[in-house]
Amino acid sequence: MNTARLYQNIVRAIKEDIKKGLYKLGEKLPSERELAEIFNVSRTSIREAIIALEVSQIVQVKVGSGVYISRTKMTHETHLAPKIHPLLEPYLKDHKEITPFELLEARLNLEPFLAQKAAQNRTEEQIQKIKEAYLMNVADNLEQSTDHIGDRLFHIRIAEAAQNAAYVFFLKYLLGQQYTEIFGGLQKLYTPQDMPLRSQLEHYEILLAIQQRNSQCAYDAMKKHIQNVINIFSRGID
């Protein structure tokens, strides 16, 4: 498989197998490990393919049990991408799709550095804006909001405090990718109930480090935060 997106090739192959009758309605697909061996790809690529199939309602994912065929006719696509809140539209525009794990890997490499630079370069006005975004994040969680306004703005404000417009552009692009259907499917399947509160507590650690101008602590706290998100979304389905 050598085209742009491995998971898209896997999706097409599984759809073809369903059309040929190799998988029946209600039948369980092979495990992630077995599918990875069949297609000679990583389990990450298999997970992305499964999410895409689930978004299209072709399979049903039962965490802890497996993946089951829920539709055998390849018609009627659904749309599960989270809606961008109007307050976030100026920041997050539609771009070409990148996969969720590509996105998270890029954020893991970029955002700890941004937090470090923010601790070194932030102004008093910028730390106030970071605090305001954090308090919005807290309010969102109290209201059980799914718009993630405070969360997204918290990361954007930190990028702005790094004092480099190019980094702000990169981060806004990456955050915009979290409003695709496949990322929405990942969040739907793998977000535990306590994840917003856990992220809020991690945000507080990052905020304190930036406020205290402790660049190493800011770097470490942001790296831990993004890595925790990756770990949660990397849990196996089976």
Write a concise synopsis of the structure shown.
The chain has 2 domains: 3-69, Winged helix-like DNA-binding domain superfamily/Winged helix DNA-binding domain (Arc Repressor Mutant, subunit A), CATH 1.10.10.10; 100-234, GntR ligand-binding domain-like (Four Helix Bundle (Hemerythrin (Met), subunit A), Up-down Bundle), CATH 1.20.120.530. It is 62% helix and 3% strand. It contains 10 helices and 2 strands, in the order αααββααααααα.
Q: Low-confidence runs (pLDDT<50, min 5 residues)?
A: none
The CATH architecture of the largest domain: Up-down Bundle
The biggest sheet, with number of strands, parallel, antiparallel or mixed sense and barrel status, is: 2 strands, antiparallel
The percentage helix is 55-70%
CATH superfamily of the largest domain: GntR ligand-binding domain-like
Number of strands: 2
Quaternary organization: single chain
Radius of gyration: 19 Å
Order of helices and strands: HHHEEHHHHHHH
The strand order across the widest sheet is 1-2
Distance between the ends = 25 Å
- Secondary structure class reads mainly alpha
What's the number of structural domains?
2
**Can you tell me the overall shape?**
elongated
Mean pLDDT: 86
Strand content: under 5%
- CATH top level of the largest domain is Mainly Alpha
Q: Determine the number of helices (DSSP H or I, runs of at least 4 residues).
A: 10
| CATH-derived topology of the largest domain | Four Helix Bundle (Hemerythrin (Met), subunit A)
